[in-house]
Amino acid sequence: MFLKTAPLKTLPASFLFFLSLTTGFAQHQHDAKAEQKSNPLSFAPVFATMLTDPELKDYKMDSSLMTVAPGGQDTVAHRHDAELFGYIVEGKVEIGLDKGAPKTYSAGQMFYEKRKIMHSLTRNPDPSTPAKVLIIFIIKNGRPGYTKEYK
C-alpha cells in the first residue's frame, strides 16, 4: 500500500516544481521583451585599428554591429564626435538627423552622419524581425564617440 500512495504524495510537490520552472521561464521571456523595449539597440564589436596615413595621425577606425530589436525605436538625441558610416546588413532602419524627416535604409544601403550632427531617431519599422547595421566610426583619439543631448 505504501508504494501506491507514495507517488500520490509526491505528485503535488512535482507539480509545484514544474509550475515554478514554467513560471520562471515565462518571467524570463517577459523580462527580455521589457528589456528590448527599454533598450532596443545592442552592439557587438567587430574591428578596430589605428589608421596609418600620416595625415590621419591619431585617428582610428572602430566598427560594431548594431542590432535594432523588432519594432525597436531609440529617440535619445545625441551626437558623435566622429564621422559615422552605417551599412544595413539585414532589414530596414529609419534614421532621423538634424531634426529632418527620417530616411529609410534597406539591406545593402549605406548612410553617413557628419561629425557632431544631431541624431534623434533610430527605428526598425519591422515588428517581427531585427535589423542589423554595421557601424563604422572614423574618430580621433580622445574624442567622445557619443554625447547625449540635454535639454
TrEMBL record:
<dbReference type="InterPro" id="IPR014710">
    <property type="entry name" value="RmlC-like_jellyroll"/>
</dbReference>
<dbReference type="InterPro" id="IPR013096">
    <property type="entry name" value="Cupin_2"/>
</dbReference>
<feature type="domain" description="Cupin type-2">
    <location>
        <begin position="65"/>
        <end position="137"/>
    </location>
</feature>
<keyword id="KW-0732">Signal</keyword>
<dbReference type="Pfam" id="PF07883">
    <property type="entry name" value="Cupin_2"/>
</dbReference>
<protein>
    <submittedName>
        <fullName>Cupin domain-containing protein</fullName>
    </submittedName>
</protein>
<dbReference type="InterPro" id="IPR011051">
    <property type="entry name" value="RmlC_Cupin_sf"/>
</dbReference>
<feature type="signal peptide">
    <location>
        <begin position="1"/>
        <end position="28"/>
    </location>
</feature>
